[in-house]
Structures are given as structure tokens and as C-alpha cells.
Write a structure and sequence with these properties.
The protein has 359 residues and is α/β, with parallel strands linked by helices. It folds into two domains: 120 residues, Aspartate Aminotransferase, domain 1 (Alpha-Beta Complex); 226 residues, Type I PLP-dependent aspartate aminotransferase-like (Major domain) (Aspartate Aminotransferase, domain 2), CATH 3.40.640.10. It is built from twelve helices and twelve strands. The strands form three sheets. The protein has a seven-stranded mixed beta sheet, sandwiched between helices. Strand 3, helix 5 and strand 4 form a beta-alpha-beta unit. The longest helix is centred in the C-terminal third of the chain and has 23 residues. The chain starts with a helix and ends with a helix.
Amino acid sequence: MLYEMNEKVIKLEGEGRKIVKFNIGDPDQETPREIVEAAYNALRNGKTKYSSGSGEMKLRQALASIHDVSPDCVVITPGSKWAVFAIMYLLLKNGGNIIIPTPHWTAYELIAKSLGVEVRFLRTRLDSNWQIDVEDLSNLIDGQTKLLILCNPNNPTSIALKEKNLKEIVSTVDEGFTILSDEVYSDISFVKTKSILDFNGDNALVKSFSKTFAMTGWRIGYSVTSKELAEKIVKLNFMSVTNVPVFIQEAAFKALELRAQIAERMREEYRRRADVACRVLSKTRLQFARPDAPFYLFPKYSNLDSERFALNLLNQGVAVTPGTAFGDYREHFRIALTLPEQEISRGLERICRGIEESL
């Protein structure tokens, strides 16, 4: 339903309709000028040839320094989604089962099902602030479990796992299988988050330049894994995507040079947007958790049919994503705050009216 809703929005915009787009986590800001210029200069200087499937060494070294690992553990990928796919494919191609906490980003489930593996969903709840119950986790683990996927901070809830909860999760897994931690929102989180790399174990991290640097369309991300798994990802790159274009990697390297100031600017802008959204929604009977990170809110209204609500709202010029796109959450819907504050306020007022009309 996530991708279907986006296609409906594109179709309506093509017909000339003005839509307030709360349905997709695509930053409205332009990619910073310095990053664009770095790519342009690289193009002018002939950085248009084939390159290493693992990525440019200077970019890998910069990322390795950030994460305190060897560059041999870092692989540059065409977006973090490819990193997720590559790790899932390599660890699950011989079968097994995978545990995905819900609500979850749709791609995890779609990739797992495309590989023909069993998906075991671990339900989390608003009333426990979206933390993972380790007893529920233990009950899903067996000898065929190959992978646990964490999204921290989470999409669609924007809630980060507490350090205590993450420690409990790691202890429960106890090196029996791999934890894949998708941390694409961590650099712009409003709260300090703990990375999976802070713990011992043969675990994997994926991150992206998309959210922090408003580079969604550039398609560049990376993985940090064991050297053995990194070598396998590189081989998969060679037989499929070959390499991320070098001029894009040059832009990513410039982004890392400006990482602290850009991340701070993005974080504060989205904190203000979250404040606006929480003020408006707190006047309604919607239940929601205040976000720990950009870009989302995942409110709930008892007995709401979020699919019907989303379609009705779209007819009124506002796009949200129904909770069913992220698991069995029909009473929830996701709002992406990737719009200017004035447009957020206007769109949220329409949502509030839509909630009242749906009663």
C-alpha cells in the first residue's frame, strides 16, 4: 500500500491536482550546493569510468573512521535498500526464517518474500512506546532463524530503541544469528541512539546519504559488515550493479566533510516540524508517540479503517500512508513531515477534519 499510494499521488499530480504529500519520506530540501558542485566537478574531471565494486577507497576510509572499523568492512552500494537486499540475499538464499519487528518498512518483507523465506513478525505497540519485548523475540527464534532486522530509529514510528532494550535484544540473540540494523535516520535523530556496532557480534549495519543530506535520488548508501560478508557483497555488486558512479561517490565524500553542520541543520528543522505537528495533533483524540527522530508520526485512532481513511483524504488533496502498509496496524496511519511548516499545518488541519468526518 505504501508504493500503491505513491503511484496514485503521481497520477493525480499528473492530472493537475495539488496534493499535500505526507505519504513519502523524501526530504523537501534541496541537496546542499557544495555536494552538487562536488559531483559536477568530478564529472568535468572525467570521473565517469568503471570503478571498484567495493567503492572508492577514500570514501570507505572516511566511513570506516566514523564507525571505527576497517575499510575492508565497508561497501558502497546504490542506496541503502540495495545494501539491505544484498545482505538478506546472501544470508537467506539457502533458506531459513527471518524475524522482522513491526511496524516495519515495507521493503524488508517484500525482499524476504521474494527470496522465499519464512517471515516471522514481532509485533510492537504504541502503549509500550514501540519497544521490543524480548520474551516475544525469544519465542520466535529457532534453529532455522538466520536474521533479525532492526530499524533504529524506526520507520514508520520515528521511535528509537532504548539502550537497555537494545542490550536485551543483543543478549537474546547471543551470536546465534545476524542482526541487520538499518540506521538511516540515526545521524539526524533528536535523541542519542546506540548503534549495533557498539555491541560485540557478527552483525551488520546499513546507512544512507539520502535522509541526512537530502540525497534520495542520488542512490548511494553503504553497509558495514564482517570482512567475509563484505567480500560477498562486492562480488554481488560486480555481477549486478558493477559500482556506484564515481562522481556520486565524490559528492558523498563532500557530504561527509560537511556532515556535522548539515546534520545539525536538518535535525533542528525537523524538530521544529515535529513540534508543530504534535501541537496540532494533540488537540485531537488521536493517540501518538512524540517522535525521537525525523521524519514520521504514526498516530492511531480506535476503530479507524486507515485504508479507507487514506483514500478519502486523498480525494480532499492530502496523502498519508495507511498503517496496513507497515503490518497489521489498520487503526494507524503514517504522516511524513517532509514539507515546509506552513504546508504541514495546513495539511494537518485537513487530517483533523477528516478524522472527525470519519466518525
